[in-house]
């Protein structure tokens, strides 16, 4: 196929637009968003792209004039808004889902949107903010209680007052950003992506997301306990490294590793059986 013929293929135009939107969103995330949000963005964009790659031959690329116009308008608005950003904005979390809607309309029209429900679900999961969840239920006191209990079991003279974890030489406040919702959402989204990618039984569809929630809470609780120890017994630089710097990514990677280990042990090593039980 010649280069000119390639340019005439709609799927290559769609691929280019999708790659451009993804690159813009990730670049802005990298520049303005917190580190954990950047990691989640990369994870979910990659997961959605993988699902598209696995099923692209089954998609019906058939869009009408109205759907194409609407999709193009959505893409144009995304580009316009992205060009005006100069700080972190909730739009960066909404952008992947809105971009997915626009691309799906361009590719398959309104009637074909349901073909992409898995990819749109994954991208839409990125839109859930910890602030929204905290308004529904604030788990900061539970996180403080778990971290204090962990330190107490390890033999440290720790006390707790609400969301404050106190040691003799220092204390920390478990505010909303350290509640654990970020870690929980990241692992929960990863567990859902796993369910989309691998055959599982009904029971596995229940306990894998449940395990993700529990692991996210526990890993974050361990991180908060470490923060308390660093405030009490270490330097400010060490605290900032593990709280804001690259050290925070280690806990994120540790959570992903534990969930991956859990999925391998209970799912992947028995994949032939899963295929027979729940194809």
Automatic annotation (TrEMBL):
Membrane topology designation: Multi-pass membrane protein
GO molecular function, one term: hydrolase activity
Segment forming the signal sequence: none
Residue ranges of the TM segments: 12-30, 37-53, 65-83, 90-110, 116-137, 179-198, 210-235, 247-267
Protein name per its UniProtKB record: Cyanoexosortase A
Subcellular location: Cell membrane
Keywords: Cell membrane, Hydrolase, Membrane, Protease, Transmembrane, Transmembrane helix
InterPro entries on file: Exo/Archaeosortase_dom, Exosortase, Exosortase_cyanobac
Documented EC number(s): 3.4.22.-
């Amino acid at each position: 196929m010649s280069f000119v013929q390639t340019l005439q293929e709609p799927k290559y135009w769609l691929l280019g637009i999708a790659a451009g939107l993804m690159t813009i969103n990730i670049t802005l995330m990298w520049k303005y968003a917190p580190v954990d949000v950047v990691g989640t963005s990369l994870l979910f964009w990659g997961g959605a792209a993988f699902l598209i790659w696995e099923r692209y031959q089954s998609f019906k690329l058939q869009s009408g004039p109205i759907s194409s116009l609407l999709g193009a308008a959505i893409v144009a608005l995304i580009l316009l808004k992205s060009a005006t950003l100069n700080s972190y904005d909730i739009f960066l979390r909404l952008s992947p889902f809105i971009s997915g809607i626009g691309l799906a309309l361009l590719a398959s029209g309104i009637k074909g949107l349901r073909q992409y429900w898995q990819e749109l679900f994954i991208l839409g999961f990125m839109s859930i903010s910890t602030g929204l969840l905290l308004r529904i239920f604030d788990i900061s006191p539970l996180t403080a209680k778990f971290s204090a209990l962990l330190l107490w079991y390890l033999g440290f003279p720790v006390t707790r007052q609400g969301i404050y974890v106190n040691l003799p030489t220092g204390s920390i406040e478990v505010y909303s950003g350290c509640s654990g919702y970020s870690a929980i959402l990241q692992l929960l989204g990863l567990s859902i992506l796993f369910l989309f990618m691998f055959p599982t039984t009904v029971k596995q569809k229940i306990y894998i997301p449940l395990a993700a929630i529990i692991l996210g809470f526990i890993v974050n609780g361990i991180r908060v306990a470490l923060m308390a120890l660093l405030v009490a017994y270490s330097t400010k630089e060490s605290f900032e490294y593990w709280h804001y710097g690259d050290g925070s990514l280690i806990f994120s990677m540790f959570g992903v590793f534990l969930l991956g280990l859990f999925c391998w042990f209970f799912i992947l090593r028995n994949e032939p059986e899963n295929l027979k039980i729940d194809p």
